[in-house]
Amino acid sequence: MTSDVANFVPERPEDRHFMAAAIRYAMRNVGRTGTNPSVATLIVRNDGDGRPPRIVGRGVTALGGRPHAEAGALAEAGDLARGATAYVTLEPCAHHGRTPPCAEALVRAGVARVVSAAADPDPRVDGKGHRMLMDGGVAVTPRVMAVEAARTIEGYLTRHRRGRPGVTLKMALSRDGRIGIRGGGQVKITGAVSDAQTHLVRARHDAILVGAGTALEDDPRLDCRLPGMADRSPARIVLDPNLRTTPDMTVARTARAVPTMIATYQTSDPERRAALAAEGVAFVACVADPDTGRVALPELLEDLAATGITSILVEGGANIAESFLQARLVDRLILVQGAVEIGEEGVTAPVGVEAARERFALLRQDVFGDDHWFDFACEGV
């Protein structure tokens, strides 16, 4: 809205410093806030007495999604919020739900200025939070480090903009561009340091998805095995249209400990379905794409979004990876290149590092032990 833009307050030199701190704090609960995004709020005072600005209140979206970050930060700041600046990684909400709008709470607390990062595409918010703040006499500086903040809540943003969860495709590649040996089970490609990083990525997603082939060959656990983070394991989804998964496999035997869903055709074996259900496995229906004969992924993702899933980490094999890439459903691509070579008997990756550099935007590159980690943004693939 043009009138709003005219009333926005320019960015100040210290704003990026505090917003960067807020974005880091928001990572605390990523993957644990249900359908709500993990947002952080910092309340910062500058009394103009020669002392540097100081944080007097911090908040992050609580587990399950409530209360919101602003409520926690205002509660911690108390009376010190009056006249202070609030740094919020997402535009404060403007709608009445089980609690009053966060924008209204900031006005009532006497906050003088709000600096926000990412815009909220939820039609109940989308500009209305800023409008409510300004109508209440609060100065607003929007879109400070908006791109960086959006990366921490990309699943939430994708769900609102596209009606599906955000998808991260991760593959481990050998130095010669292979991802394993067909029919040969697991092949160790990466080392302990990057493996730990993989478990951290798992913890930051709502669900992890593999195909039936990977489940049958590797019998994986698909959990988070970092010390003290077992409860951060994502839900598990096995893409198994013909229901080849058996009750004695790990994902089935542990389904009561870690939520597990199998995407399968309605016509799949009813006896096996009943046996898996007895272990605690849930099911989501899928249909075949009439053109490819493969599972229709867009429809499946829409159904998964309806269950409350906002982010999915795809760790399947070559066929699953290729399907998601061809359907243009990958939002982030993580390639981890190890030092080992597999040779001609290996399965060629559907996309390698050099091809990814040409097609996608490289967000960052890291080295973990002997492994090279490449993180690409794939919007618009």
Automatic annotation (TrEMBL):
<dbReference type="Pfam" id="PF01872">
    <property type="entry name" value="RibD_C"/>
</dbReference>
<keyword id="KW-0521">NADP</keyword>
<keyword id="KW-0560">Oxidoreductase</keyword>
<dbReference type="InterPro" id="IPR004794">
    <property type="entry name" value="Eubact_RibD"/>
</dbReference>
<feature type="domain" description="CMP/dCMP-type deaminase">
    <location>
        <begin position="13"/>
        <end position="140"/>
    </location>
</feature>
<keyword id="KW-0378">Hydrolase</keyword>
<keyword id="KW-0511">Multifunctional enzyme</keyword>
<keyword id="KW-0862">Zinc</keyword>
<comment type="similarity">
    <text>In the N-terminal section; belongs to the cytidine and deoxycytidylate deaminase family.</text>
</comment>
<dbReference type="Pfam" id="PF00383">
    <property type="entry name" value="dCMP_cyt_deam_1"/>
</dbReference>
<dbReference type="InterPro" id="IPR016193">
    <property type="entry name" value="Cytidine_deaminase-like"/>
</dbReference>
<keyword id="KW-0479">Metal-binding</keyword>
<keyword id="KW-0686">Riboflavin biosynthesis</keyword>
<comment type="pathway">
    <text>Cofactor biosynthesis; riboflavin biosynthesis; 5-amino-6-(D-ribitylamino)uracil from GTP: step 3/4.</text>
</comment>
<comment type="pathway">
    <text>Cofactor biosynthesis; riboflavin biosynthesis; 5-amino-6-(D-ribitylamino)uracil from GTP: step 2/4.</text>
</comment>
<comment type="function">
    <text>Converts 2,5-diamino-6-(ribosylamino)-4(3h)-pyrimidinone 5'-phosphate into 5-amino-6-(ribosylamino)-2,4(1h,3h)-pyrimidinedione 5'-phosphate.</text>
</comment>
<dbReference type="InterPro" id="IPR002734">
    <property type="entry name" value="RibDG_C"/>
</dbReference>
<dbReference type="GO" id="GO:0008835">
    <property type="term" value="F:diaminohydroxyphosphoribosylaminopyrimidine deaminase activity"/>
</dbReference>
<protein>
    <recommendedName>
        <fullName>Riboflavin biosynthesis protein RibD</fullName>
        <ecNumber>3.5.4.26</ecNumber>
        <ecNumber>1.1.1.193</ecNumber>
    </recommendedName>
</protein>
<dbReference type="InterPro" id="IPR016192">
    <property type="entry name" value="APOBEC/CMP_deaminase_Zn-bd"/>
</dbReference>
<dbReference type="GO" id="GO:0008703">
    <property type="term" value="F:5-amino-6-(5-phosphoribosylamino)uracil reductase activity"/>
</dbReference>
<dbReference type="InterPro" id="IPR002125">
    <property type="entry name" value="CMP_dCMP_dom"/>
</dbReference>
<dbReference type="InterPro" id="IPR024072">
    <property type="entry name" value="DHFR-like_dom_sf"/>
</dbReference>
<comment type="similarity">
    <text>In the C-terminal section; belongs to the HTP reductase family.</text>
</comment>
<dbReference type="InterPro" id="IPR050765">
    <property type="entry name" value="Riboflavin_Biosynth_HTPR"/>
</dbReference>
